[in-house]
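Onboarding guide, step 5: your first structure request.
Type a short instruction followed by the sequence, for example:

Predict the 3D structure of this protein.
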Amino acid sequence: MVYISYAAALPVLQREWHMSGTAAGSIASSFQLAYALSLVASSELADRVGARRVFLVSTAASMAGAALFAAFARDYWSGLLSYTLLALALGGTYTTGILLVAENVPVARRGRAMGFLLGGHSLGAALALALTGMAIPRGGYQLAFLLTSLGSVVGGLLAWAVLRDTPNLVAPRGAGERWTSAVLRNRPAMVVITGYTCHSWEVLGMWVWTPAFLAACFAAAGSGSTAAAGLGSYLSSLFHLTGTLASLTAGVLADRFGRTQVILAMATLSTVCSFWFGWLIGGPVWMVIAVGLIYGFAALGDSPIYSTAITEVVAPAYRGAALALRSLAGYGAGAVAPLVFGWVLDLSAGGRGAEGGWGWAFGTLALAGAMAVASAIVLHRLPEARSLRARSK
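The system replies with structure tokens like these:
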């Protein structure tokens, strides 16, 4: 929940913190970069001391980081610092959660299980956006940050209760064997990581800027700025709900028909939406909503499949290392995407979010989506990736 709180409140924060599109994008980029570094460190550590242990320590740190962010983020610099510290704590809960699923769920049901895990991520984002839409008109972004930070507290307590009896597993590595040979020389793994990197650029850039875009659409339709911000958050929450449905649906389909086929279908559809979405500003609101719901579904649909695929093409002892590299590349791209989006928006629209500016800005996400499509085609044709094309049994 707290992960998406900055994006949810961005239309208000830009005004109250006096930020240009580039400055606003820099906070999101700093978060993504810190999150990527945290994912790398926690993933590699999980291979050595166990995913369960790292996951639980990170949830405790996330509770503290969320409280710090809610209490002290009041301008550009305090927001930048506290949001970045929050990212360092949250990063330890993501790939370790994926590893826990891989360790405890058989291959035949792993796509579905990963869909539930990442569907929960989207559901939390949807709840955060809905809460923000309710809170901003009543108590500003301060109340919104307070409410969304409570998600880390509840989630942390649930994690400790659920994982109490789950074993902490550490797979032994072969003598003299290095992760470079197990991951970097693994062609299917590297193609999955490439596709995920392009996917991350598209989806993380979309997550950060969609609430602001929707607010601009409502403002263009005649809503006041504060009301438009609230409506933008409410509507973005619906997009994340479709993402939850997509994660669950895609996971089941991937178990039934194969991983690469579902990745290709979702990546193609989301790329088309990225090319089209930004140009809809100024048009009928119902059309923005309709395309946005499809966009939210497609952009999130392949996330659990990438996570499932990487655990199936890499040996158990090196899953953490593979996820670390994937996270560094994916969230590194996700760190750059909001910044490039904001820069293009400023460049083409003078920082005012004019109609043409949004279209070109979303176009930067579409280019990454097209590269994800190309990676999916390569992965599908790799002889070493036959297991990803087949039905799980």
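Each response can be followed by summary notes, for example: The chain has a mean pLDDT of 86.
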